[in-house]
Design a protein that fits this description.
With about 375 residues, the protein is mainly α. The protein has one domain. It contains twelve helices and two strands. Strands 1-2 form a two-stranded antiparallel sheet. A hairpin with a 5-residue loop joins β1 and β2. The longest helix has about 55 residues. About 25% of the residues are buried. Belongs to the OXA1/ALB3/YidC family. GO terms for molecular function: membrane insertase activity. Keywords: Membrane, Transmembrane, Transmembrane helix.
């Protein structure tokens, strides 16, 4: 009799436990993960911003959650990517204003010393070119390391910071769109399509691609302008003037200026020959000096000419075109986030150009001798 009383209780307990487990597993996966995932936590914060903005009067074309997505994207970009952007700009300024002038000042006296030593070598020209190239690479690498402005890190840091930031923000907004009770089904932005659904008109996807391409092209344009700023700086003008008057060579007995050149004589020997220089201060002399000064440092002054930069630009253009297709199938809230981010990149590019122009005067300071 005691067993018969206990058995139903155990069966009931077992049945209740199984039922509880079944109900637990039927809960939506997103609801279970929202308490543990940083992505869903970020989505909750974006929703909180939208709820807070609902207390303020907003224009009719934008609702509180659309405004929350825009504001959250701007805040995230400002907090994460903008400091890295200015960190990279400072490194570019140090390379332009300190490293390149030092290399230019070092190059000529070292070449003259090496040319005199090359006369004693079996193959002077080959030896001179090899030794000069090796020494120049080592000297440049030491300067870049000393002043903490290696171009590879400068070029990679901004995109390696931007891409994860955009991906995490996009995943958070996508999580909001797929919530069963998402408020984005009841909110629109400049169209009749809810933000939780893709934009059937294709206007916003095209805007994403066009804004991304605009940001890339502005970056290229301003990079070329930075190279022009260096050529027009006070330091560059003084250097060209010095080349036009004294760097052409020592004066010979007749008072004419000469240029020292390493040449091979008909007998097969290598000698330093003095040839007549162009008139000091002439336009041809200045143009030649300026061209020579900037030719070897062109990739540093204008990153768009380097092979690595061209690869990154090709990837960026391909990604901008790909984003048009991705945006066609993405919720409007995601597209709004990408439009905001691309617009932020354009504003950031203009801000960087202003920063370069403001601190371009540093290039007029005479570089300290190594």
């Amino acid at each position: 009799m005691f067993r018969s009383a206990v058995a139903p209780s155990r069966q009931l307990l077992h049945h209740s436990t199984c039922r509880t487990r079944t109900i637990t597993h039927r809960l939506p996966i997103q609801q279970q993960a929202r308490h543990f995932s940083p992505i869903t936590a970020l989505g909750d914060q974006i929703l909180s911003v939208g709820n807070a903005l609902g207390e303020f009067p907003l224009p009719e074309f934008i609702g509180p959650y659309a405004a929350g997505i825009v504001l959250s994207t701007v805040v995230i970009r400002t907090a994460v990517t903008l400091p890295v952007f200015f960190w990279a700009r400072k490194r570019v300024a140090r390379q332009r204003d300190i490293v390149i002038p030092k290399i230019i000042e070092w190059r000529k006296p070292f070449a003259a010393k090496l040319a005199a030593e090359a006369k004693t070598k079996p193959n002077p020209k080959e030896w001179f070119e090899s030794e000069f190239k090796t020494a120049a690479i080592a000297y440049r690498a030491n300067l870049l390391k000393e002043h903490k402005c290696q171009p590879l890190y400068t070029a990679l840091a901004p995109p390696l910071t931007l891409i994860p930031t955009i991906v995490l923000t996009s995943l958070a907004i996508r999580g909001i769109c797929v919530m069963p009770d998402t408020p984005l089904y009841f909110e629109k932005f400049l169209s009749d399509v809810p933000l939780a659904l893709p934009d059937a008109t294709g206007i916003f996807p095209l805007a994403v691609g066009m804004l991304s391409l605009t940001s890339l092209e502005l970056g290229r344009k301003f990079a070329r302008e930075r190279a022009g700023d260096f050529k027009e700086s006070e330091w560059a003008k003084q250097h060209v003037k010095k080349n036009a008057t004294t760097a052409a060579g020592k004066k010979n007995g007749g008072g004419k200026q000469t240029v020292s050149t390493l040449v091979q004589t008909p007998s097969g020997k290598w000698e330093i020959v003095q040839t007549a220089a162009r008139p000091p201060g002439s336009k041809a002399q200045k143009d030649t000096a300026l061209e020579k000064m900037t030719a070897e440092d062109k990739p540093a002054l204008d990153p768009t000419t380097s092979r690595f930069s061209k690869i990154l630009e090709g990837v960026g253009r391909g990604g901008a075109v790909l984003m048009i297709g991705v945006s066609m199938w993405s919720p409007g809230a995601l597209t709004l986030c990408w439009i905001t981010s691309s617009s932020f990149s354009i504003a950031q590019t203009f801000l960087g150009r202003w920063y370069d122009q403001k601190f371009a005067a540093r290039a007029s300071l005479p570089p300290s001798q190594p």
